[in-house]
From TrEMBL:
This is GNAT family N-acetyltransferase. InterPro entries: Acyl_CoA_acyltransferase, Gcn5-rel_NAT, GNAT_dom, GNAT_YJDJ. GO terms for molecular function: acyltransferase activity, transferring groups other than amino-acyl groups. CDD domains: NAT_SF. It comes from Melaminivora suipulveris. The keyword Transferase applies. The keyword Translocase does not apply.
């Protein structure tokens, strides 16, 4: 698995995963409102699919929510599926 760095781009409202040379591998859009972090859309660039990029983005989003005391609404199917497979984040999922 390659090394990816995930950062927050608040101007765009998304978390971005980049390779060591700065290439954008994927991103997860988010919205913050009323104590909830909503994750409506996740994109992994085709050449990076199957390399853990989406999981790194999900982990970053849920870790951020926990650190900031936010609930998470995993509105996109990828984030919802990831949360289902990770019982350690179930306490963050809105409506659970």
């Amino acid at each position: 698995m390659s090394h990816y760095t995930v950062t927050d781009d608040p101007q765009r409202g998304r978390y971005e995963a980049r390779t060591g040379d700065g290439t954008l591998a994927g991103f997860a859009d988010y919205q913050r409102a009323g104590g909830t972090l909503t994750l409506p859309h996740t994109v992994v660039e085709p050449e990076f699919e199957g390399q853990g990029v989406g999981s790194r983005l999900a982990r970053h989003a849920f870790d951020t929510a926990r650190r900031e005391g936010l609930r998470v609404d995993p509105a996109c199917s990828f984030m919802a599926g990831w949360a289902e497979r990770h019982p350690e984040v179930q306490d963050l999922v809105q409506g659970k």
